[in-house]
Every structure is written in C-alpha cells, then in structure tokens.
Amino acid sequence: MAELLLTTAEKLENFRQKSAKIEAMGGPKMVEKQKSMGKLTARESIDLLFDKGTFVEIDKFVTHHSTFFGMDKKEVPADAVVCGYGKVNGRTVFVFSQDFTSMGGSMGEWQANKICKMQEMAMAMGAPIVGFNDSGGARIQEGMYSLSGYGKIFFRNTRASGVVPQITCIMGPTAGGAVYSPAIMDFILMVKGTGQMYITGPDVIKAATGEIITHEELGGAVTHTKISGNAHWACDNDEECIATVKELLSYLPQSNREKPPVIDCNDPIDRMEEKLNTFIPDSSNRVFNMRNLIKLVVDNGEILEVAKDYAPNILTLFARMNGQTVGIIANQPQMMSGCLDVNCSDKAARHIRFCDCFNIPILTFVDVPGFLPGKGQEWSGIIRHGAKMLYAYAEATVPKITIIVRKAYGGSYMAMCSKDMGPDMVIAWPTAQIAVMGAEGAANIVFRKEIAAAEDPDAKRTELIKEYDATFNNPYIAAAKGHIDCVIEPKQTRPTIISALEAFKDKVDKLPWKKHGNIPL
C-alpha cells in the first residue's frame, strides 16, 4: 500500500505557504491601495513599533467561523487583525493591529476573541497594550456576534484600566461602537487625514439632520485633539504616531505593580537656573510661558506634552527629574490668564488620576487667578468639573509637590493642590501671591468705604491696593501658618524638587477601605 502521509519536508512547505498567504493579508492589490493612501499596513505598523526580531504573533491561523451571506466561501486572513507581543526598547508590550486590507478590518467574533486574548495576556503578565485601529466597523455579515465582540473588548478595557497602560492609535476609520474601546483606554493618538472617529458618519448625519460635514471635520485628528478633547496627539503620519507611542512608553511603568523606569541623567541635580530668578514679570498682569519655565527645571529641558491643543490654559506633561518620571500639571498664563474652566479641569483631573494609577509622582506648577467666570461656565457645570480636580488630587497617594510661582487665588488655589489637598511639599517663590483674590478686587471690597469717603477716590484706591498687595500678596502669611513648607529662590527649584522626590519616594499613604469612590463625573 502506498504511503499517504506527508513527509516532514512537505509539512514544512505546507506551513510556509499557509503562513505566507496570511502574511500577504488582503493581497497585493489591497496592500497597494492601503499604501496609496499613505497608510502603513497592519504588519508594517507592528514592525515599526517593536525592536527588530522580537515580535511573536499569536493566533495567526485563527479565522472566522461564519456561514451567513456567503461568508463560508470567504477567507479573511487572521480574521483581519494581527496580535502578539514583543519588546519596545527592551520591554514587553502586547499589541493588536487591525488589517484594513482584509475585509476592511471589520470586527467579527473571532477578531474580537483575538483582541480579548491580548488584553488578558497583558493584564496577567503586567505589560502595556497598544492597539492600532483601522477598521470599517462591525462586520455586518456576522450580526450580533460582532456587536458581542465589541462588548467583550470594552469589558476588558475597563478591567485593565489602572492595571496596565492602554494606548490606542487611530490609523484609519473607527466608527460606531468601535470608538468606545479607544475612549476607555488611557491615551489616543490619531493620524491626520486618515484617522477618524465618530459615532455616526457624515452620510447618516446628512440623512438625519440635513447637516453636511466631511469625515475629517466631523471626527478627524485635529477635531478630536483641539475641540472634543477625545484624543491626545494629532500626528502627521503613521511613522510619527508610532514614534510618539514609543516615547510615551519610555515614561511609563509596565503595570501598576511597579514604578516607572529610571534612566541615567547627565543633567546636574544641583543645577541652579539663574534665568528663573528673573522669569516672573514685575507686573502681575503680564503673562509668561509656563512651558518654558518648566523646561528650565526638568532634565535637559525635555518634556512630552499630553493633549497640547485641548484646553491650553492648563499644561499636562511627562518629564523627568534626575532620571525619574514625573507627571506635571501647570497653569498656562498665556492662555485665558491660566484660569480654570470646564475643559481644563477634566484634562487635569484625568492626568492626575493616570499618574496616580501608575506610581508617577505629580508636580503642580501654580499661577492661577481663579475659575473662569460667566454663565457659560456655570451652566456647563464648572462646579462639578472643578470638583474633579479637587477629588483627583485628594485621592492621589503618589508623592505630590506643589510649586507656587505667582498667583494662587481663591478656590482655584485649592484646586491646584494647595496644602489642604494633601501634597507632601508646597514650595513657593518670593513672587507667590496667595490670597482670596487679587489686590485690586480685594481692596475695592475691603476698603470701599474709605475709597468712597476720600477726596480723591482714585488716588486712595491706588494707595490701598498697594497696601493690600504688600500685606497679603506674598507667600509669607501662608508660610507663617504652615500652608507653605518652604520659600525658595526660583533658581533653587530643580534641586529642591529632586531632594523632595528622593525624600518621599517610599511614601505610604493608604486610603480608607472602599470599593471605589464616586468621582463627580
């Protein structure tokens, strides 16, 4: 009887052919179409993310099991998603990358199962997960099975929140239910021109409301990084997007079980920055660039700004001090005088909570004149949104250091991590002004009778404003009552912060037992 079994060589050749067919994704024609749009393929994105030769693909041979609408005759390589793990700058990262060349990257039951497996592996191993989203949405031919897949992913996104960093890159269309997985994750990066997110597309909007709008205007990178605040970075192309992911990962720990990596620092820890002594303008009404101030303090002037274009009246950054990652919250006097409003309160609270999740010390640089006044803010819920900052700071148990460089007025003073909100160290510059309100407003209220009775009310008002300013608009009354831990020359800021970080690095601050708090959402 003739031997029917395949030889080992034949089996190997069979494997190579099957593997090559899957790696070809949707075929040369679809791959070329993807590239013609300036987009990387799912596999090219993975190759660019991981250290060379470290990527291991999981579930390569998984495909759909659907038989509806002719699906039993349709092959979808890897069920339109590439999953696995590898090393990014020597550290393990898990990934899923949707393949738009294969049936538009549509979400089916088994694509979802593959992504869920990556999420579970990432949580079990304590490693970040990165997603490359490029999908036409739910696979209609699979009906509720595709919708169920989304639900499974959302559930695991939520369970992974605060356990491992979750980063998503919107490299192509992401519509309908597909938007909610990125929204639950920690950071969203979008590619201009090709990455879009929206619940309902332009065609549906036109049919429902008559409104005409383009895909990019409705849900493009600029829209979501500048107007909605749904995304954190708008990148010019896929390559820049992936480079930003790698930079972001370099600041983060692998999971909530460890601290961020510490890198070698060649910036002297005792560096005195003389420029800081003259950085604050003499007039409290003049602005300065807080971003430039921070660059003079942190290691080598290097920062990674999060959500730069959204709510620019507050800065949210990652940087390093003596090689150690820190998260920074800072008022930006150049924008709206650094006032707190609805949007910046949300932006800051989210950054504070992320840093606290992942053991990243928080530095707060303060120059805040107050909450933005007006019925628009009140009707938009500034009370509730401002309370998010208060809640986030009070809840955070990581080392917290506050540096008051100029104005710290009223309720906004507390919202920027005043001493009563639990910071470990509050540092003030001699230029700090800690009061209920500015000198002019305070004098007009406190001395209104004297001003009204004066022969020259304007001259009297000017005199009393100066008197109030000299008496209260300084750090010394607060320091006398222990609300300021130390007043320093501005040039001493870097060594003072580094010393404090070293002192509080092993801080233990346990919250009362609870299932979880109820942040004022």
Q: Could you walk me through the main structural features you see in this protein, from its secondary elements to its overall organization?
A:
The protein is an alpha/beta fold. It folds into two domains: 23-251, Alpha-Beta Complex (2-enoyl-CoA Hydratase, Chain A, domain 1), CATH 3.90.226.10; 274-438 and 473-503, Alpha-Beta Complex (2-enoyl-CoA Hydratase, Chain A, domain 1), CATH 3.90.226. The protein has 20 helices and 17 strands. It has helices at 8-23, 28-36, 42-49, 109-125, 144-160, 180-184, 202-209, 215-219, 221-228, 238-251, 290-295, 342-357, 375-379, 382-395, 410-415, 439-446, 448-453, 457-472, 476-480, 493-503; strands at residues 56-58, 81-88, 91-98, 129-133, 166-170, 173-175, 187-191, 196-198, 233-235, 303-306, 314-321, 324-331, 362-368, 400-409, 425-428, 433-435, 486-487. Helix 15 links the parallel strand 14 (400-409) and strand 15 (425-428).
